[in-house]
DNA sequence: TATACGGCGCAATGTGCTTGTGTTTTGGGG
DNA sequence: CCCCAAAACACAAGCACATTGCGCCGTATA
């Protein structure tokens, strides 16, 4: 296991801010030689601390300008029903995140679609056709004052 | 504006899956020469379609193993109060996302902390000290069957 | 103190990025 | 149907960077 010293924390912070920073620049920022820095990054990747790298794409530019969070309650809480629901969410491309949560409902979804019409389609044709869904509450995102998704 | 043809869509798809793919490999996957591919990527970056690159870090490895979504309702809906609340969220490092949403509440937060104790601290010391907060509902994430955050 | 070990810096090598240039393709008008 | 202009592409050279082997040093252990 790679120990979490200050240098590693700095490396992760820099890579979270800019995943494509060159190893040279990264090494300088954290105060290491390029080789030592690279070895630490590779170790972090190998041990799974760094799970991968993603490009951040503007949703509006690719027809995903409509964003909503949805809470979903199930009428039955058996493992089989949960698995069935989760499978359905896996298949739906509009669903970007599906969290199993505590509270008055069971699931919290993040849904990205092109527009309100597409959202209605998802709401009725996708969520509406999954059995055991007992409650659906939509929270349409009007803006995100803070968004550090990575 | 860079037009969204099939090649560009493929480029974005590949970069969302692997933000550090080499330009050579990316070019081969989308069926272009390396130079043409690089020019398209640069154009996408220049026009803001690609907003940046991030490393995906395992939260458990850096002491952020406790994840929750929180819905927040305000007692007053004036612009000044909203701004004050958003400012407070900007300052709180535990808050990774803050969405302004429609519905029975005003805000949806994504909060990442180390453990339940840290969560309690955030709940009482941070959220509890912001005026105009009238309702707080926590949805603690037990698992994420699907997570395509990027 | 001797020794083993882990982490680091240095240097050389290979790989990929990057840009200028010529070529091909595409679209509109004669 | 052909021609021309503009955009997109492939090719190649130069260069920067990633990558790896090696020796050094500082620390822990017996």
Task: Describe the overall structure.
Two copies of one chain form a homodimer. Chain A is of the alpha+beta class and 150 residues long. The first copy, chain A, has two domains: 6-46, Arc Repressor Mutant, subunit A; 59-140, Lrp/AsnC effector binding domain/regulation of amino acid metabolism (RAM) domain (Alpha-Beta Plaits, 2-Layer Sandwich), CATH 3.30.70.920. Helices cover 38% and strands 31% of the residues of chain A. Chain A is built from five helices and five strands; from the N terminus they run αααββαββαβ. Chain A has helices spanning 6-17, 23-30, 34-46, 79-91, 116-126; strands at residues 50-57, 66-74, 95-101, 107-113, 133-147. Chain A has a four-stranded antiparallel β-sheet with strand order 3-4-2-5. In chain A, a hairpin with a 5-residue loop joins strand 3 and strand 4 (107-113). In chain A, helix 1 (6-17) packs across helix 2 (23-30). Chain A is elongated and about 55 Å long. Strand 3 of chain A pairs antiparallel with strand 5 (133-147) of chain B, so a sheet runs across the interface. The structure holds a DNA duplex (30 and 30 nucleotides). Chains A, B: One of its GO terms (biological process) is alanine catabolic process. Chains A, B: It comes from Hyphomonas chukchiensis. Chains A, B: InterPro entries: ArsR-like_HTH, AsnC-type_HTH_dom, Dimeric_a/b-barrel, Tscrpt_reg_AsnC-like, Tscrpt_reg_AsnC/Lrp_C, Tscrpt_reg_HTH_AsnC-type_CS, WH-like_DNA-bd_sf, WH_DNA-bd_sf. Chains A, B: Keywords: Activator, DNA-binding, Transcription, Transcription regulation. Chains A, B: Residues 4-75 form the HTH asnC-type domain.
């Amino acid at each position: 296991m790679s120990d979490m010293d200050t240098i590693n924390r700095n490396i992760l912070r820099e890579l979270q801010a800019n995943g494509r920073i060159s190893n040279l620049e990264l090494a300088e920022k954290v105060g290491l030689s390029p080789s030592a820095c690279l070895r630490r990054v590779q170790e972090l990747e190998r041990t799974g601390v760094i799970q991968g790298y993603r490009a951040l794409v503007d949703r509006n530019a690719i027809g995903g300008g409509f964003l909503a969070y949805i809470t979903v309650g199930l009428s039955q809480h058996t493992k089989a029903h949960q698995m069935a629901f989760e499978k359905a969410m896996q298949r739906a491309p509009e669903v970007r995140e599906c969290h199993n949560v505590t509270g008055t409902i069971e699931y919290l979804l993040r849904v990205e679609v092109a527009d309100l019409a597409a959202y209605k389609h998802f709401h009725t044709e996708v969520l509406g056709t999954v059995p055991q869904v007992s409650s659906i509450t939509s929270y349409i995102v009007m803006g995100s004052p803070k968004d550090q998704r990575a």
